[in-house]
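Hi! If you just cloned this repository, the fastest way to understand the data is to look at a raw example. We've pasted two of them here, unedited. The first protein comes first, obviously.
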Amino acid sequence: MTGAATRRIGNFVHWREWDGEIVAYNDRSGDTHHFADLAAWLFRLLTRDAISDAAIAAAAACEIELPGSIDRDSALARTLDLFAQLDLLDRPDRVGAA
């Protein structure tokens, strides 16, 4: 994760939550994705508003407890990379746009 990045889920992603799990439909690609646990938590966080990587890390430190063998920052970075690969995040030039 980089401290300067600001991210959010794009408005082209439609989603629902059931029992703490997220099902997301990407209107651009037509793909549907299922997220649970850390990925569902991070997805919800990114739907609220644009947020910096530093704020994501701070929220995770307060709210997420992972097994000792899992590095939280690495897990967050991998999950953000996955969201980017799945084209779920707004482009950086659109994050600040209304």
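Ok, and the second one:
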Amino acid sequence: MYLYRNLLPVRYILYYSVFFLVMLFSCENDEKADNKKEAQLGGEREFVPGDLSIGIVDSVTIKEAWQLVNSFDLKITDAWGHKYLSNLPYDSIDYIISYLNKKPYINYGMWKAVKNGNVYFDRNFNKISVSCRLSNVLPEIQEDWFKVVEVLKLYEVPTNTKVFYLNVSVGYELLWKDTFEDEKIIRWASPNYYSEIHPF
């Protein structure tokens, strides 16, 4: 009887250990199955028709990236994440903001030039920094932007946040995604996938 009582805790320990291991492997298998299912369904995720986003390699200038997109005769609806520094003196910041906001492709809704927002004095460089979002970037807008760069004495600095939003033909989004992913100056390309919002 004494021996039986001493063996009871050992039996419980073994039982719970086996139960725990079974549950652990079961959870891992379920997770792998879920990941596999998600990967299989990835190609079936819904996205906004005609929308494509591309990320630009940090060392590539906005001019080079625009030339690539223009070669495909695609429309750039938005360009953002680029960074310029100005060789104008610090006290020119208000002039720079005023000049930028005269451009309808910059002063567009909430994306206008704002002091201490997308236009500010960058202490790391001791220069005025300009990071304005550009909208509806047609070839003529691109040419105008290069004039702005000259007038405001801007020069581009590398950044890994450069993104373009493009319009592509509906039904060809994944084809364009593959096309851009094959380009050396493109970091990534993706359709504009819908996101599921779960209520809590």
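That's it. A detail worth noticing about the second one: The chain has two domains: 2-44, 47-193.
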